Amino acid sequence: MNYYNKDIRPQPEKDHQLKLNNRRLLEITGVKEVDSFDSEEFLLQTVMGYLIIRGHNLQLKNLDVSEGIVSIKGKVYEMAYVDEEHQEKAKGFFSKLFR
């Protein structure tokens, strides 16, 4: 075994993919948990971190917890990841979310 060429980056448990069709249908894989959602915002825990999806008239079309697949329909305006590096932003978002 050649230790010099070994990839030491941690690999996610599952693949994580986002597929957006015409800003109306979003399919996401690698979802661990749906933390909260309403018609304007979804908060998902994925294998790559927390994902926030914002839009208008958002609806949960499909949820497969065992496979980690979520489908959301509605007008998608924004998708953003909340990383550990941006803890202040995350705290502000969560405090706003749970008022």
TrEMBL record:
Transmembrane segments: none
Identification of the protein by name: Sporulation protein YabP
Highest classification ranks of the organism: Bacteria, Bacillati, Bacillota, Bacilli, Bacillales
